[in-house]
Amino acid sequence: MKIGIGNDHSAVAMKWEVVDFLNELGHEVVNYGTDSEESCNYPVYGEKVARAVADHEVDLGILICGTGVGISLAANKVRGIRAVVCSEPYSARLSRQHNNTNILAFGARVIGIELTKMIIEEWLNAEFQGGRHQERVNMIMDIEEEKYEHL
Ligand code: RB5
User: N or C: which end of the chain has fewer CB within 10 A?
Assistant: First the structure.
C-alpha cells in the first residue's frame, strides 16, 4: 500500500520510527511532514496529507502532531476525508470497519511507539464492512454536500 505521512515539529522522531515500521510491513511511504523540530503549523501538514488521500496520490494517510487533534481537525476539512484520532487499537480497527476512515492520527506526546505500532497494524489490517455502515458513512459525506434530506 502507498501511505502518506504528515507531522509537525512535535512528532519528527516518531514520524521516522513509524516510517521504518511501515517499510518493514512492506508499505511505500510518502513523507509530506516537516523534518525540522522548529515550531511550525500543523494544519499545513494535515491538509497536505488529506489532499494527497483525496486526490488518490496515496491510498491512506497517517498524521502525527502533539495530540493528533489539531492535525486531524485540519484533515477533516478536506472533502472526502474521514480522519480519526486514536490512542488505542479497538477504536482504530472499528474506525475502518464501520466508518471507513482514510486517515489515522495520533499524538506523539500521548502514546509511545509500541502502542502506536499496534494501533497502526490494527487499522491497516481492518476492512470496511459496508452494508448499514455504508449508509451511515454516506450520511456523513452528504454533510459536505450540504444535503439535509435525513434531518
Ligand atoms: C504544538 O505545540 C501542538 O499544539 C500540536 O502538535 C498539536 O498537539 C495540536 O493539536
Answer: C
